[in-house]
Amino acid sequence: MLLRPTYPALPEPRTHTTTAVVHGHESACPCAHIPAPPTRGIAPVVGLGVGAVAAVVLVGIVLTALVTAVAVGAVSVAVAAVVLRSLLGTPRHR
């Protein structure tokens, strides 16, 4: 009972009625009943550019991390090879 959320009641849906204008003389009607052409805002284009920049930055970060991991692995293998060579080699310098 303590951890169960209680949700607020949903508001009742509003009904919207539209009235249609019907003219019997559509060719002689001086008022404009032509719908406006859809306008294309700049917001979708900006959103696409921001998404592309974010994708490029993310790919750059991932590739940098992979190159760093390969470099660290190569250095650690080289150090291990030097240590093993010194341990398994003949003791000439003693």
From TrEMBL:
This is SpdD protein. It comes from the Bacteria. Keywords: Membrane, Transmembrane, Transmembrane helix. The chain crosses the membrane at residues 42-63, 69-88.
